[in-house]
Write a structure and sequence with these properties.
This protein is mainly α and 143 residues long. The protein has two domains: 38 residues, no CATH class; 100 residues, no CATH class. It is 62% helix and 0% strand. It has nine helices and no strands. Helix 3 runs antiparallel to helix 9. 10% of the residues are buried.
Length: 143
C-alpha cells in the first residue's frame, strides 16, 4: 500500500472516530482512540504481520513462509541467549526490497521485547501486542 493511500485510509478512520464521538476538527483525536481501544491502521497492520510471523515461528504455519524466517542462532556459529528470538535480516540493497513483507516482518519482530516474543499462545500474543501498542499510543497523547 502506498503512503498516500495509507494516509487517506487513516484520515477516513479519524473521520469515523470524530463522527462517533462528535469530536471537533481542532480537538486531538488520540484520546478517543484510547477510550475506544482502537489502534491506528499502521499499528493494526503491524499486529497482523507479527501474528503471522508468530505462527510461522511457533507452529511452522504456513509452511511456504517458514524457510524465509530464520533466527540468528540458526545462522551464526556462536549461540547467544537472545539469538533464538532475533530474526536474521535478509541482505538487501534496493528500496523496494526494503519495503517488502520479509524485511518489514523481521524489523517488527526484532523490535519486540523478549517477554512478548516468548509467548506461545497466539491469543495471548495478540492481546499483549495490542496492549503494548495502546500503551505506546497513550504515551503520545498531548497534555
Amino acid at each position: 500500500m502506498t503512503i498516500v493511500l495509507s494516509e487517506k485510509l487513516q484520515r477516513t478512520q479519524n473521520y469515523c472516530i470524530r463522527y462517533v464521538y462528535d469530536v471537533r476538527r481542532e480537538q486531538h483525536i488520540t484520546p478517543y482512540y484510547i477510550q475506544s481501544n482502537i489502534l491506528k491502521l499502521k499499528d493494526q497492520r503491524s499486529i497482523k504481520i507479527l501474528k503471522l510471523v508468530h505462527s510461522i515461528l511457533k507452529f511452522g504455519i504456513p509452511r511456504y513462509f517458514s524457510e524465509y524466517f530464520k533466527s540468528v542462532s540458526h545462522v551464526g556459529v556462536r549461540s547467544t541467549r537472545s539469538g533464538s528470538y532475533i530474526l536474521r535480516m535478509p541482505q538487501h540493497k534496493t528500496a523496494v526490497f526494503d519495503k517488502s513483507f520479509h524485511v518489514m516482518a523481521c524489523r517488527l519482530w526484532n523490535a519486540l521485547p523478549q517477554t512478548v516474543t516468548s509467548i506461545d499462545s497466539s491469543s495471548r500474543f495478540v492481546a499483549k501486542l495490542k496492549d503494548m501498542y495502546l500503551e505506546r499510543l497513550a504515551g503520545a497523547v498531548p497534555v
